[in-house]
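Give me structure tokens for this 498-residue protein.
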Amino acid sequence: MGLTSNSSALDKQFDVIIVGAGIGGLTCASWLALQGKKVVVLEKNGFIGGRCASYTKQGFTVDYGIHAFSLGAKGPLQEVVRAAESRLKKDTPPLLWQRFPIVLKFHQNVFRPTLPISYSHFWNLFRTVGIVLSMKGTKRSDKFALLKSMFGLLKLRIGRQIPLESLNVQEMLQKFSASEVAQQIIASSSDCVSAIPSNRFVARDFMDIMFNILKNGGIWYPKGGCGAIARAYSGIIEGCGGSVLTDHAVEEIMVEEDPDPNVPPHIVGVKLKNEDKVISAPCVVANIHYRELYENLLKKRFFPDSLVKKVNALETALSAIVLHIALDTEVYAEKFVMDSPMLLTKDSYKSGSNRTPGGMFVITSNFDHDLAPPGKQLVIAGLGVDPALIHEKNAFVQILLEKLQKLAPPSIQIKDHIEWMDMLGPAEIESLFGEKGAVIGIASTVQQARSKRMGSRTPVNGLYHCGDDSGIDLWGVGTELAAKSGRNCAKLILNEEW
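Here you go.
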């Protein structure tokens, strides 16, 4: 792989400069490179992939965040890889996937959801009914309320009887049942894919995402860890003659104004931070937060007041406490466990609920044994939290460790098998990725989802934006949403003059 921080690669002439090597920026660059555009990707950090990146430590390959992909090999992350396999004539696919079922814990109960998508799968209906009716510690009325909600959602998905774009998940669930238990069980999946509470997540996105997951038989994970996605894209870019450079922060996006006030300003290149060097190109794609774009890298006057107001009003998803735990032995048989509730807001934490927070637990070395040394195991555990609760981070770490202990066999004490443990909190996530430490960028709320999302075009000719924050009418989970945005942004660039 030709990934480098060597500035000599910048002596070339470029058609497009990509600022930021998140999945959106790398996807956009890959599509452009495959179409013959000369591209360079500039990343301020020493690694690529943004939130979907990995690091190595003592023989373990560790994802920065908690990731499981709803579409995997069948989704937007694989599209550019398939195109590259055809156009670059590569024999070995650079990005391989594995698919696994979901495990959902609620109180003493464990669910492995499936969806009856054809006549031959209708036995899943009876299996689901049996699981619900045999739930422990749950009143009979709540069991029937859960079944009513589940089949109501199935009917709603098929019939589209109500405008789901105008409802949040909680409002949608309340149409089927007043049972708090039924709502909590279903809403836990909403927490997992959105990183915002169910009373904020837009119902249509939830329905489309979850039915895709169920229809495809579970979740996906890339062989080699999450960093394999960015490495695959980097290989495509460089295989087409482009460059991906780490440790190259951009100080300013250079814009030239025309003497004619009726002609919009246009891009001329970028100036690197800490270097007296300007890289020229007629097109720049920003794979960074919109606010950082207009406040730090552009002069604010290029954005009209209406757009500035919209950007400043954008709500981000919650942050998280994430533990990376290396175990000296193989403890867990499961691969991906969601233990409800997985999110804590200021309000829910103050309410004093007697429900202990849960979390998301991904045993990544069970997805891919090469991510840990032989006989060892790698666990990533996370709890979504409001950054305002950071003063409680030690308590949240303890909650996650206690949950991991309960998931382990009774004969094993987890603390006796921890080789090392890293913790990422809101402050660490903010320093690495920005956006107030949000784990999935801009939140998919009713007010800023689908047609209300930020566009990829900007008021400056030749300046575009991509990532999970932009792309009108797009939807999806974090990284896959970013890939869609990068793909669509590349299409815009290829179809427009700049």
